[in-house]
Amino acid sequence: MVALLGAAALVTVSVLVLQADRVLAVGSALSPGLTGGAVLALVCAATLPNAVLWSCSYLVGPGFAVGSGSVVAPGAVVLGTLPGYPLLGALPSSAEPPAWAGLLIATPILSGVLAGLVAARALPAGGWARLLLVGTGAGLAAGTAVAALMTLSGGAVGPDRMQETGPLAAAGAVAVLTLALSGSAGAGAHAVLGWWRAR
């Protein structure tokens, strides 16, 4: 879970840095003044955890919505009119995601494998079935925690179409399934390595 959230945080910060001009332009267009600008900066900082969890849903695959009928995912970007909120300036402007975006969905798989490896290594000893069970359990726990956090990060932020924002419903289920299966694979890899070394 930590690895996946860390990767999502890295993606979020990287996108904000790369799109800094657009983010600042959206903020300037609001003409908030000195005090208003400080308050706006604090609000943006307070919503960064939500942005990280939305990035997490992007990495998992289904993506997130910024208004009803919208989607931001590795396979598609569909956006309507957006409110003037600086962080939204970092969203992709093109309906065609970059070619490398699809590579990002390997992140949850690698995170699950890591969870399975760590859990399997923590066992003093055990057969294959036990290792696979522990790896699957570790991935399942991590996926469930991530799914719960993603669910809490969305919700209504305004009237009309802005009542639907945040990770898509399928993101949680995909996170649980992906991390559980890859956790099992990680534990299996640990078992294979142990067998190979013992030869």
Q: Could you explain the architecture of this structure?
A:
With about 200 residues, the chain is mainly alpha-helical. The chain has one domain. It has helices at about 1-20, 20-30, 35-45, 50-60, 105-120, 130-150, 170-199; strands at about 65, 70-75, 75-80, 165. The protein has a two-stranded antiparallel ribbon with strand order 1-4. Helix 5 packs across helix 7 and helix 6 runs antiparallel to helix 7 (about 170-199). It is elongated and about 70 Å long. The two termini are about 35 Å apart. The model has no long low-confidence stretch (mean pLDDT about 90).
- Placed side by side, the strands forming the largest sheet appear as 1-4
Order of helices and strands: HHHHEEEHHEH
Provide the residue-averaged pLDDT: 88
Largest sheet: 2 strands, antiparallel
Distance between the termini: 33 Å
Computed structural class = mainly alpha
User: What is the molecular shape?
Assistant: elongated
Q: What's the count of strands?
A: 4
Helical content class: 55-70%
User: Can you count the helices?
Assistant: 7
- Runs in which pLDDT lies below 50 for 5 or more consecutive residues are none
